[in-house]
Specification:
Helix content is 34%, strand content 22%. The chain has 210 residues and is α/β, with parallel strands linked by helices. β8, α6 (170-186) and β9 (190-195) form a beta-alpha-beta unit.
Length: 210
Amino acid sequence: MEHINVKSLVFEYPGEKELSFADFSLNAGENLLISGNSGSGKTTLLHLMAGLLTPEKGSVCYTGKDISIMDPGELDRFRGEHIGMIFQKHYFINGISVLENLKAARRFAGNKNGHAWLTTLMEQLEITHLTHKKPHQLSEGEQQRFSIARALANEPGWVLADEPTSSIDDRRCEQFVKLINQSLSDKKTSWIIATHDQRLKQYFNNIYPL
C-alpha cells in the first residue's frame, strides 16, 4: 500500500530556532489535518514534504522513496506525477486563461488528455464561468478555488494544502470538504492540510498538532 512516512525531521532557517517535527505515517486513502497557530511551522512542514525545502536531518519517504535525496530533475518529475500543491500565495501563469493553466499543469506532468476531468473539476468548484478569464481577473476567493482545481488537475495521489480555505465562505468550505471526500473515494487522493481554520477540524479524524 502507498504511504508517506515522516521521520526525525529537523529544519532550521538561518539565524532562527531549529524546528523539529514528530514522526508520523499516513496511508493512501487517509487524510491528515496539521493544526497550529501562525509561526508554528505548518508551512515549513508542508514544504519539506513537497521537497521544496531540504531537511537538516531526517527523511520524507513516499512508499519507500526518500525525496530529500532525489536530484532536482527526479524530484520535479516525482512532484508532477504524485503531488498536488495548494500554496498560501497563489502561483499561476498569468498570461493564459484558467482552463489553459489547468491544461498546462497536465502537460507539464506528461498527461495530455483529461478534458472531461477538468470540466468536472471546474463544475464541482463552481468556476466553470471563469474558464476563459485570466488569473489576475479573479477575486481572492475565485483564485483560491482555482488553486484547488490546479492541485487536482493531474489526479495526484497526494495533495499538500496550505490554508486552502482561508478566503472562502462557510458554504464553499463545506463544498471543499465534500470535494476532498469525493476525490478520496473516486481518485484515491489523500489530503494533508495545514490550517488554523477551526471549521475543518470537525471533518478530520487524523490531526497532527504543532
